[in-house]
Each structure stands twice: as structure tokens, then as C-alpha cells.
Write a structure and sequence with these properties.
Helix content is about 25%, strand content about 20%. The protein has 14 helices and 28 strands. Strands 5, 6, 7, 8, 9 and 10 form a 6-stranded antiparallel sheet that branches. A 6-stranded mixed sheet has the order 16-17-18-23-24-28, covered by helices on one side. It has a 5-stranded antiparallel sheet with strand order 1-2-21-20-27, with no helix packed on it.
Length: about 500
């Protein structure tokens, strides 16, 4: 990590996203022009203030000053390429983690943007360019998905498991019945191609930090298309192979509450079945805790800071606690949990924010949220003595990955599950020429020693993934493993 000391509030400045050597490599401009470019880079004023709001105290990139064009034109869409490319070039903290050099991306997309003749071409080009960010946070607010990959999708909800599609629920009963499809059926091919081949063909339009999210987000486009009927084949839940023609149904992405097709899992433990996820109608949330014998499970996404002291006191003598980070909760007050799990306060992470005085450089700060939340835990002579287990998977993203970073500080903690989403940092937007916005991660989030979380995510100590049979039976294998680990603790 190449860095230098800075005296303006930052702990240090990182130069790993910064490179001005291209100026000297220019061989068709005069020495005077080169000097002018170098002077711009080293200008003492806040030359990046056009992209910060307000420039005096804001750490966030803002493109609100960018111009919006009312009508479509080929010339404006070429401008779009350079607008997006430059925003990422100077204000994307994770540019250095990309598989391809960002200069190469510009060369790759100039010919593609030159070929734009209509709005569908434009939307396709922007989606492909956005996917090059390899950032799970990346999305286009008003999705272009339907125009590019198709407006129709499957008449069922599903999970992707073992490179196949497992039907987990019904959206259009008539179309499923017509195709002789049932919950529990396993689809292995779509239009004669494997599920993996179908995913790879369409994934170029969607950004993902790692392979686990590539599979997770395939739910959004795997069955997309404009042809009314497609051919599918696979294995029925009774083991018999099948081939059938399936009519697709209209999908309204933003209205789908069942986006990922995850079933309501149960815990099958020592010969008994338990409903550990129960809904509290009065409070309009899942109940945050479930106790079984000497173990307690916390549904972290439904926890509230105010109830933590009572809950932790209630369960302080249990043999083990399980914290489920497969949902989402960005309430900073949940740091109170660590007052009971840690013996002393710890710094759990640092961040990198854009240095608007010299675009392309990033400033390291020794906290993630703000100075008030720099530390997790407090001086506690009697911290929790039981086994702490944390559940993670590809749905553990962003704020949940930050919580996982804090849990890493708990002595003897065990992480169970699979690789997380690898997208940490705030959602930041680039205003597009049509007024839409493209979202990307605007802050870099790291462990205290500078270790990466972006793209890598949090890796488990014990790898556990759902299987076809566990999903069919609605069994939560991750929670079962967590309870088994606690039972084995002496």
C-alpha cells in the first residue's frame, strides 16, 4: 500500500488509485500543455469540489451538478461513457481491485458506444459498462433490465443450488400446471443449455463482486426473455427426468416480495422440528431471539438497540449464542451487543474516502461510521463466556459485512456458512445523461490493518451450504451446524 502522510485531518493518503504518469507519455502535445496538466493535478485549491457537496466538509462524491439531456442523441451517449469512466477513475475507492486496468475498459467501450443507434443499444452499453465495476453495490436505479434482457420470467420462485434451479414457490399456478411443474422440481437446462451456461451468457449485464453473488443475483435474470415459451428439462422431485415447454410470465421486479425464493426455514434438531423464525404482528417484525435449551439464536436484522441490554442479560448464562447475519440491519446502535461480548473496546475497521483536493487520491480515516462509533465494546471485566457463532452467506452484504468485521473481534468466534457478498461501503451515485443514476460503492472499508473486504467478503471458518434436499425439506443447515458446534464445546 503506497501512502504518504497528510496533515489535513486524514491519517494518511493512499496513491494506489492515483497515476499521473500518462501525462509524460503523451507524445503529441507540447511541453507547455504537459505542464498545464501537471499543474492542474497539483493545484492547491479544491479542484474536485464540483463533485463534492458541500466541498468544505462532505466526504461523498456527488454528481448533482452534471447536466441532463432531454432528448436522445448518439453524441450525448458518447459523453455518457466519459462521464461514467471519469467518475470511476477518480472517485471509486476500489478501482485498484478490478480484474482489468480501467484504461483498458475505456478503450474497450469506445467502439461499443460508437455503435449506439437507439435507446436499447444505449441501455445495453451502460449495463455492460456498469458491470465492469465488479461491485455488488452497483445498480441502475431505473432498471434497464427489461429492455435489455427481456420483460418475461419464470412462473415460479426458486433457489439456485448445485448448478441447478430448485422450484421453491408458485407465482402463476396455471402456467406451472400447464408445464407440469411442481414445488421441489429441479431444472438443469433452459433452452438446451446448462444453468451455468445461461448464467454466464447474461451475467455480462450485471455487476457482482464475486462468484457467490453472481449465482445469487442470477435470480434477477436467469429466466428473463421476450419469447413467450421456453424449453426446460430436469428432474422431478420423485427422481424422474422431464422435458417440457414453459410459458413465461410478466415480472415486475420492484413489486416482488419473494425476490430470492428463499423458503421459510425450520430447524430440525435432535429429531424435532422448530419454527425459530416467528413473526410478531404487533411489532411488524420477526421476533429477534429464539432460545432452545442452553442456546439462543438472534435474528440480527430485527434486533433493536434499546432491547439489547435486557436480552444479553437474560441469556448471559447460556452455553452459546448464534447471530444470524443473513438479513440486513444498518442501525449503528447495535454496537451495544459488543459491550457484552468483549472485555475491552476495540477498533474494528477503517475507511478510505475521496480526497477532493486531488482527485484520484484517497484519505484513510480510523473509523467506519464516524468518530462516535470508532470503537466496539467497552471495559467489561465479565464478558460473555459462552461460544459465539455467526451465520453468513451470499446475502450478507454491506452493513452486515461490517457487523461481521466487528464479530471477528470476539474471542473464539466461529463463522458458519459461505462467502459473503464482498460489497462494503456507502452507496454513491453517478447522474446519467438521461437523469437516471448509476450506483457504486463510494467509500472503501477495511480491517484495522488495511485488510480487504471488497470482493473478498467475509469467509467462514466452517463452510456449510444448503443442498437440494435441505431446501426441499426447508431445513436450515447453517443453524443446525451452529447448535452442533455449541453442543460440542466443553
Amino acid at each position: 500500500m503506497k501512502s504518504q502522510k497528510k496533515d489535513s485531518g486524514c491519517d494518511s493518503i493512499t496513491l494506489r488509485n492515483f497515476d499521473s504518469s500518462w501525462i509524460e507519455k503523451l507524445n503529441k502535445i507540447s511541453p507547455e500543455s504537459k505542464k498545464r496538466l501537471s499543474d492542474l493535478i497539483n493545484h492547491p485549491n479544491n479542484v474536485g469540489s464540483f463533485y463534492s457537496n458541500p466541498p468544505e466538509n462532505d466526504i461523498y462524491f456527488s454528481s448533482k451538478n452534471e447536466k441532463v439531456y432531454d432528448t436522445f442523441s448518439v453524441e450525448v451517449k458518447m459523453l455518457e461513457l466519459f462521464r461514467i469512466w471519469n467518475a470511476i477513475e477518480y472517485f471509486y475507492p476500489y478501482k485498484y481491485l478490478l480484474d482489468h486496468n480501467w484504461d483498458y475498459i475505456l478503450k474497450k467501450y469506445i467502439p461499443l458506444f460508437k455503435k449506439i443507434n437507439n435507446e436499447k443499444d444505449y441501455e445495453s452499453a451502460v449495463m455492460q459498462l456498469a458491470a465492469e465495476l465488479q461491485d455488488t453495490h452497483t445498480s441502475i436505479e431505473k432498471t434497464y433490465q427489461y429492455n435489455v434482457v427481456g420483460k418475461l420470467s419464470s412462473p415460479f420462485i426458486f433457489q439456485i443450488v448445485d448448478n441447478a434451479v430448485l422450484i421453491t414457490g408458485v407465482k402463476d399456478e396455471a402456467k406451472m400446471k400447464k408445464a407440469n411443474l411442481e414445488i421441489g422440481d429441479l431444472i438443469t437446462k433452459i433452452n438446451g443449455k446448462s444453468i451455468v451456461k445461461n448464467i454466464n451468457d447474461k451475467s455480462k449485464y450485471f455487476a457482482f463482486s464475486n462468484e457467490s453473488v453472481k449465482i445469487r443475483d442470477a435470480y434477477s435474470y436467469l429466466f428473463s426473455g421476450d419469447e413467450k415459451t421456453i424449453a426446460i428439462e430436469g428432474v422431478k422431485k420423485d427422481g424422474k427426468p422431464f422435458k417440457t415447454a414453459m410459458e413465461r410470465t410478466t415480472r415486475i421486479f420492484n413489486n416482488e416480495w419473494d425476490k430470492e425464493g428463499v423458503p421459510n426455514y425450520q430447524l430440525n434438531y435432535k429429531g424435532k422440528t422448530y419454527e425459530y423464525l416467528t413473526y410478531n404482528e404487533k411489532e411488524s417484525r420477526l421476533n429477534p431471539s429464539f432460545q432452545l435449551d442452553d442456546k439462543v439464536y438472534f435474528e440480527f436484522s430485527s434486533l433493536k438497540g434499546a432491547e439489547i441490554p435486557a436480552l444479553m442479560e437474560k441469556y448471559r448464562n447460556t452455553k452459546g449464542m448464534v447471530f444470524d447475519l443473513r438479513g440486513y440491519n444498518d442501525n449503528a446502535s447495535l454496537l451495544k451487543v459488543f459491550d457484552y461480548l468483549l472485555a475491552k473496546p476495540v477498533v474494528y475497521g477503517i475507511k478510505a474516502q475521496a480526497d477532493f483536493s486531488q482527485p484520484g487520491k484517497f484519505c484513510f480515516v480510523d473509523n467506519i461510521v464516524n468518530k462516535d462509533y470508532k470503537f466496539a465494546g467497552k471495559d467489561n471485566p465479565d464478558p460473555y463466556k459462552g461460544q459465539v457463532v455467526v451465520l453468513i452467506n451470499e446475502y450478507t452484504q454491506s452493513a452486515e459485512e461490517m457487523w461481521a468485521m466487528v464479530f471477528k473481534k470476539v474471542p473464539h468466534v466461529i463463522f458458519v456458512g459461505s462467502q459473503t457478498a464482498g460489497a462494503d461501503g456507502n452507496k454513491t451515485s453517478i447522474k446519467l445523461t438521461d437523469g437516471n443514476i448509476l450506483i457504486f460503492s463510494g467509500l472503501g472499508i477495511y480491517y484495522p490493518d488495511g485488510g480487504e473486504t471488497q470482493r473478498i467478503g467475509i469467509k467462514p471458518d466452517v463452510v456449510v451450504r444448503p443442498t437440494v434436499e435441505s431446501i426441499r425439506n426447508k431445513e436450515d443447515l447453517l443453524l443446525l451446524k451452529a447448535f452442533d458446534l455449541i453442543d460440542k464445546k466443553k
